[in-house]
Specification:
Layout lengths: L5 H9 L3 H25 L6 H20 L13 H21 L12 H4 L14 H14 L2 H12 L4 H8 L3 H22 L2
Length: 199
């Protein structure tokens, strides 16, 4: 069977042709791996080789599962090559992984919460120079666990995942204006929780 074109290759995979599936993996394996790695780096998220390999494999499982249900969605419209389409699918899958990790108690973020943002205002409590950084960080992290999932997800994606508000809005499926409002409210709620823990 000739797999010289994108459509031939997709049709071969969809039909369950073993050689087509193997050719598909060989052709796009390096690109998927590099795209996974690039997305981690672009979002400033810590990763291990195991993380890259797991997500690399997840992309192909995602495309091939349920009789190649996802791969069947490729139409090649507007000149979009199969290679470009797979890169888009890969980035979205990795971003979805970040979102799930952000909602996890463990998380995998490289950057820490900027605790100075969430510290109560000087007039609300004792001067913050009397509280050591380690204790303040613990207070902020404890306060995070008490937030509603929506607030916690936004703060982790924006501050710990280093994603701009616009991208967080896209991930959370809300408008950018609503995302800015959510940011303001989430910071205010977390600051209040930290303040309560110092009294």
């Amino acid at each position: 069977m000739n797999h010289s074109t994108d459509r031939d290759l997709v049709n071969g995979c969809v039909s369950g042709n073993k050689k087509a599936l193997e050719a598909f993996v060989r052709r796009f394996s390096d690109s998927v791996y590099r795209t996974v790695q690039y997305t981690f780096k672009a979002k400033n998220v810590m990763y291990t080789e195991s993380d890259l390999e797991d997500l690399h494999n997840s992309v192909f499982l995602h495309l091939f599962e349920s009789g190649c249900k996802r791969l069947r969605q490729y139409k090649g419209k507007n000149g979009c090559s199969l290679h470009s389409w797979i890169r888009i699918v890969t980035v979205r899958l990795v971003i979805d992984h970040f979102r799930k990790e952000a909602n996890s108690p463990l998380g995998c973020w490289k950057t820490n919460l900027p605790i100075e943002i969430f510290a109560p205002k000087a007039q609300d409590s004792e001067p913050w120079d009397r509280i050591d950084t380690a204790r303040l960080r613990n207070l902020v992290e404890a306060g995070m666990e008490e937030l509603m999932p929506r607030d916690r997800l936004f703060l982790k994606l924006h501050f710990m995942g280093d994603l701009p508000v616009r991208e967080v809005a896209d991930i959370m499926n809300i408008s950018e204006a609503n995302a800015h409002s959510l940011k303001h409210r989430a910071i205010k709620r977390l600051r209040s929780k930290v303040l309560l823990k110092t009294k």
